[in-house]
Amino acid sequence: MINIATTRMNRRSFLKAGAAVTGGxxxxxxxxxxxxxxxxxxxxxxxxxxxxxxxxxxxATLVMPxxxxxxxxxxxxxxxxxxxxxxxLDQVRLEHAPADPAYTNPLIGGQIxxxxxxxxxxxxxxxxxxxxxxxxxxxxxxxxxxxxxxGCTARDGRVHDAAGGRSFGYGELVDDAARxxxxxxxxxxxxDPADFRLIGQPLHRLDTPDKVNGRAVFGIDARxxxxxxxxxxxxxxxxxxxAGLDEAAAKAVRGVHQVVTxxxxxxxxxxHWWAAHKGLEAAAIRWDGGEHGSVGMADLRADxxxxxxxxGAIARDEGGVDAALAGAAPRLEAVYELPFLAHAALEPxxxxxxxxxxxxxxxxxxxxxxxxQAVAAGILGIPAEKVxxxxxxxxxxxxxxxxxxxxxxxxxxxxxxxxxxxxxxxxEEDIRHDMYxxxxxxxxxAGLDAEGRPVAWTHxxxxxxxxxxxxxxxxxxxxxxxxxxxxxEPPYAFPAIRVEFQRVEPRHVPTSWWRGVxxxxxxxxxxxxxxxxxxxxxxxPVAYRRSLLDANPRAxxxxxxxxxxxxxxNALPAGHGRGVALQYAxxxxxxxxxxxxxxxxxxxxVHRLVAAVDCGRxxxxxxxxxxxxxxxxxxxxxxxxxxITITDGRVAQGNFDTYLPMRIDEVPVVETHLIDSSExxxxxxxxxxxxxxxxxxxxxxxxxxxxxxxxxxxxxALKRA
Length: 721
Prior knowledge:
Layout: E1 25-27, H1 40-43, E2 46-49, E3 52-54, E4 60-64, H2 73-85, E5 92-96, H3 118-145, E6 153-155, E7 158-160, E8 167-169, H4 170-178, H5 208-213, E9 228-234, E10 241-244, H6 247-251, E11 256-261, E12 265-270, H7 273-283, E13 286-288, H8 297-308, E14 313-318, H9 321-326, E15 331-338, E16 350-356, E17 359-364, H10 369-380, E18 387-391, H11 405-414, E19 421-424, H12 427-432, E20 440-448, E21 454-463, H13 466-470, E22 497-503, H14 517-536, H15 541-547, H16 553-566, E23 576-585, E24 588-598, E25 604-614, H17 621-641, E26 646-647, E27 650-651, E28 669-674, H18 687-704, H19 715-718
Parallel strand pairs: 1-2, 4-5, 9-19, 17-18, 21-22, 25-28
Antiparallel strand pairs: 1-3, 3-4, 6-7, 7-8, 9-12, 10-13, 11-12, 14-22, 15-20, 16-17, 16-19, 20-21, 23-24, 24-25, 26-27
């Protein structure tokens, strides 16, 4: 059975606060470890920290701090805990973590699933949680036998004495273990990697059976007694508001109970969604678009172009760029553009809310349970502890569930409704009221020496600052760290480099995180421009990159491996080409080679993607390959088709006929090669998403000689006369 929930914490501290859970053994990292509630009920439990609960039957329930949205983090987190706890995955059950600071992501500083941080953030804390629990269980068994705990061992959910003739199951020991003082997690020895039995193995996912047999419960599956369904229409111009509607016509639709208006939306409450949807249509809503009702893409692009010509906030400035450029010959310049992108997750936005007795219960799939709790409490004017987040599996997040706007809409609707109400967005509302990957507009310049090597590199990023809204303290001296990630610290050695950030908010268009965040645009720009330098130097793109990686052996190794595995340098038919891209992002190194075919009409078919990745120690190699495949397809979909445009203040696209998903016949072969590494794990969920677009466009250049500096790929620009 899978349940789920979450929390918050300082990024440089450890998980704080223990969570009391009834029955058996409960383990959760707490600072200071060794403290325990003094009440009588807690004294009968084993609760040194908040991630593990073991009952008297020996069943281990693992509380997952990060939410599952298809990326396999339930599996990875469970493997980390179970490895140190010395249990098999067949001995565990999983639960969502509640909204609680005990489940803070230490790399982000809040109870947040995102940024490809789950495994790298929890690599130490979850293993320590398992090790602490194991240590206490071993001590409990040793005390019963009257022997030294150092001679006892744990394996497969049992503790064995030194001779191996006696053993206790964990369930038999939980009461005794609960009475022992909790050791400091830092003082508990973790397993030698040479002794790992789970970590490093390609194990099957724990959530697969329930997803196959239909028992898995996503947010949209929430069911409550007496629950009504709401369909929502939000002002089509961002920032607009309802100006009038035909409430009587809406209520005349069979099954409709109520029409609700909020500051920027209208909802129809009904027995089922179709009635609510038809009620919205019948309502014939009139909207006030406000001051942005005439804004179009030309306006937004002009804003970006003008801003990109002005100096920005300095993210990095080393080596005397201006002097190096003045002495360079030749010098290259380029402008790159990347469009707004929607998330378009399979599960549309939804949220179920029940406000009652001065409290609020929310059933939703969210990447930010703590923030969701705070947002709901703020709207209702009640203490946060009066809001309970019942987190669920997410049918695709991609950063969209890092925002609480859908929850806010649902709470505003629910406070006008008696009883529980589930708000479900149509696909059109989901796409037209997304929070989009920003439109980016980048200017670059490089100077080369006589051998064609770069002596100076400048990169000015112009676009929205998500951090300024989401975490303003992270923006220092005007630089959004996400906006320049992948640009400020490229893997290459440049004698002189200057990277700037020019914040340009797209008037009224809301922006937010999108799978791959800053690197999704910066890797495209950097790797495309590096390819331009290689072409100007008359150099092979792989050899050119290698020449700039003398001080970066891990980066060079993935380039070499990907090139060899792809058959780089082997002849291809006319109209075919190979392209390469390299990145360091999310704590991992990745090189990708794309093989493409460009038809006479400009149509692009990607036949093969070959990736070499060094993501540190692999927790589950099979899951890494799955994430590489999924991320590559997600990024390739955007490169081929992805673009949100604004016409008369509103989004022009509305469903999968105008915001195109990749079709199954477009999917290439994806090969992933893992580089053995003993380094701590890096992130993997977003790496391929960022790398695939430049690999493909560089391959298009190799096939056609045409350089694409704007996405999505435009077949008209590639059409042969």
